[in-house]
Amino acid sequence: MSVPIVKGFFDPRTFSIQYVAACPVTQLCAIIDPVLDFDEKSGATGTVSADAILDYIEAEGLKVEWILDTHPHADHFSAARYLKERTGAPTAIGEKVIEVQKLWKGYYNWPSFPTDGSQWDKLFAEGERFRVGEIDAHVLFSPGHTLASITYVIGDAAFVHDTLFMPDSGTARADFPGGSASRLWNSIQGILALPDDTRVFVGHDYQPDGREPMWESTVAEQKRSNIHLSKASTEAEFVAIRDARDRTLPMPKLILHSLQINMSGGRLPEPEDNGRRYLKIPLDTLGGAPWDEAA
Predict the structure, then answer these.
(1) pLDDT tens string 37-75
(2) What is d(CA 253, CA 72) in angstroms, rounded to the nearest whole number?
(3) pTM of the prediction?
(4) Degrees (nearest 5) of the Cα angle 288, 181, 38?
(5) Are 71 and 80 in contact (CB under 8 A)?
């Protein structure tokens, strides 16, 4: 099995990890789940995180072949569009993104918004194969956290984003619109069916007990010590654990900000007649307000 060189970039503002996976023979690479900086207090956007990736690629003599999203993120903006403009590389996501677009189009009341995935250059189907340089890659459909979540398996590396976390953090939540703990369980089984020595790269690390950020494990380590999977031997047990945990979690602070950007492939809203861009925040749309539990 081919072994890509994987470099992770931890973003402490969103606890997310961006990746570059490179073919050591051809120096071609894929950028996976890049972050566009956003400060919700000031409304400022920035490219510090994405530019760090570009600096690394230049320093290593790499050429970008793909810009890959695993799903439309709920806690940070995607820098896919910015990086496409800088590199010319095609953007891609799973074909089920159209289901997310259809769902959130209604929330944002955007009757003219196209829900055909045309905001990306490529929509991957379940099981579809592609290459990063000379390294074989394929797509696993991994719904549960969202309707559109996928895993990219590039050589011996699986980029699972919000499906599994590090073993001491368990699994991703499944209570977003379109989420399902049952589907998440089945998606995890597909990942755990990969060879035990497959490297597993997660999309977030919330640093339990204040430890240093971590983002790489193996399928064997996940099977052996994932704190949620070790407590659940059946789908029903997992769903009960996941649903109980999700009921205690607030909505991500940037979910309403992020989805309108990310279901557009990382495109910011078009400037209005004063030259400024504006986000649209639907009120009283999602549950999870701090007073809901008290009620």
Answers:
(1) 999 999 999 999 999 999 999 999 999 999 999 999 999
(2) 15
(3) 0.94
(4) 50
(5) no
